[in-house]
Amino acid sequence: MPRRTLSLVVMAFLALIPSACWDKREGAVRVTVIGGAAKVSDPALTMLSAPDAVLIATVGQGLVRFDAAGNIVPGLAERWNVSDDGLSYIFRIASADWPGGRKITAQQVARILKRSTAESSINPLKDTLGAVDDIVAMTDRVIEIRLKAPRPNLLSVLAQPEFAIVRNGTGTGPFQVDPKQDKPGELRLTREIVSADEETTRHDQLVLASGPAEQAVRSFAAGNSDLVLGGTFSDLPYAQRVRLPRGSLRFDPASGLFGLIPSRPGSALDDVGVRQLLSEAIDRDALVDALRVPGLAARATVLEPGLHGL
């Protein structure tokens, strides 16, 4: 892993990561996300683009978050307890402020999460939390999520950008948008980390940019970006046309790639047997070989009876 590692988690097919031999510049870490300009959107009202998701995960953490290794660690909640039957999750909110200095309260957090899981919400992950019975503030710093049925993956879902705690275009950290921006189209993000003995303070800076895949890859190849996130397999040719450091191209595992997902009822795909035949007709090895990515292999994953993906 590079010396400078970002605790950003976004489900992207294509990621460019600096190798150990890549020149390390001092100062702000520069991240480019393939897509349009990043903005702090309300996940209950807007589908997040890849740049939006990275920005929100950085400036608007949820109750919990992912660390650089993908483990669940405290976010806005400093600790939590789960009942023996798995139906109650109680979170203690850390003492924190909104930008501007007002305290973040459990009542505000509960209201924001209830909006994201409401029937009117367009949050794409709300159905994953379909077993939520209620979200209540027990005190100013304690919140409880009550479930109708156990959800073992609840914490992993709450760590996604779609459940970041944001309101009125502002988030809960750990980074904040610096009001003094250097270049149009880029966002400079900053945070302060105080040592355990409160005697030293470290200032971290992150510059977040976005743009088309070809531009993002060329910027990375030229050493102007430390990390590129986003894109799909259709953007792979851009990365294959330029000289990149060895080991810098990474891929997220994707279930269903080159698989079959019926989008509407009323066709021949309603027949499980038809889907099975079509699935068996896909030469996954040939499709993966055509991508010309060393070490990338096809694997069969059953999505539902008769429906298979890579």
Largest sheet: 7 strands, mixed
In terms of per-residue confidence, which ranges show pLDDT below 50 for 5 or more consecutive residues?
A: 1-13, 19-25, 300-310
Order of helices and strands: EEHEEEEHEEHEEEEEHEHEHHEE
Beta strand count: 17
Mean pLDDT, all residues:
81
Radius of gyration: 21 Å
Termini Cα gap: 27 Å
Structure description:
A hairpin with a 2-residue loop joins β7 (132-139) and β8. 19% of the residues lie in helices and 26% in strands. The chain is built from 7 helices and 17 strands. The protein has helices at 50-59, 106-117, 154-158, 213-221, 236-240, 272-281, 284-291; strands at residues 14-16, 29-34, 64-66, 72-74, 77-82, 88-93, 132-139, 142-147, 166-167, 170-171, 176-177, 186-194, 201-211, 227-230, 249-251, 301-304, 307-309.
Short description:
By secondary structure, this protein is an alpha+beta fold. The protein has helices at 50-59, 106-117, 154-158, 213-221, 236-240, 272-281, 284-291; strands at 14-16, 29-34, 64-66, 72-74, 77-82, 88-93, 132-139, 142-147, 166-167, 170-171, 176-177, 186-194, 201-211, 227-230, 249-251, 301-304, 307-309.
Based on the model shown, name its key terms:
globular, 310 residues, single chain, alpha+beta, 4-stranded antiparallel sheet, disordered C terminus, 7-stranded mixed sheet, disordered N terminus, 19% helix
